[in-house]
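Lab notebook, bench 4. Still working through the backlog of constructs that have no structural model yet. Next entry is a single chain of 280 residues. Request: give me the structure tokens for it.
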Amino acid sequence: MNGVEFVDGEQCEEPKVGMVFKSEYDVSQIFNKFAKKEGFGIKKCSVKCDQDSVVKYFCLVCSRNGKHLSKGKNTLNPKPSVKSGCKAKINIVVRSVCDYVISKVLLINNHGLSPGKSRHFPSHRIVDLTSKRMLELNDRAGIPLVKSYRALTIGYGGYDRVNFGERDARNFIAESWDSRLGVGDAKALSNYFKRMQKRNPNFYHVLDFDADGRLKNLFWADASSRITYESFSDVVSFDTTYLTDCYEMPCSPFVGVNHHGQSILLGCTLLSCETINSYI
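Model written out:
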């Protein structure tokens, strides 16, 4: 296909005006993959919202966009900066929920590009799901992070093939510690769902608490799952045996089937017990 290449085994297409996406994540992915192939990083800027704080417009720009304003007192020896006023960017207009369209594309950089070193840019240092799972399992088993990361690099075939560094792995483990359910978990989870709903009003969630304020059951479905359900709700599977966490709460997904015969996630719930009331 014209304008389509592959980066790390994934399709990489050059962003063009008029392209439509279902979410901010999708449009960020295509620009991030293109930037990685070319050899520069990206970041988000120029966000504009309406009166209800719903995002209607934003830009994804080169990480060297903008001008550096030194805060050092010695004007003869300013602090170094990577900013060079690079104008490479794409503008995205949010027309409605699940309707993100590229309105402007400018792909000319005013600095040198480093495709071979692009994996070191913050926007490309991504800990994939498989690596996250392995790091977390090893951490729970008491295996030192250094050994876990070394095992990952061997599995990938060398340090140059890993899209994140040891510091990124350490940061992920620190975040996973914070997210593990403990004191205040229900409040933290509620706040997280509220942030998700503020980001996209079509995100839906319900939390069920007992008389002591402890979390009993919860359900959530993102905007994409809700739209998918409108088209593929003929067959829905509800499985309560998928996973049990350290709190012995079954993770029960609602799974449908699309027109290609593929399984699709329609929603998910955590249950305190498998009773009729919990199911309701």
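Notes after review: Residues 10 and 238 are 31 Å apart (CA to CA). The two ends are 49 Å apart (CA to CA). Flag for follow-up if needed.
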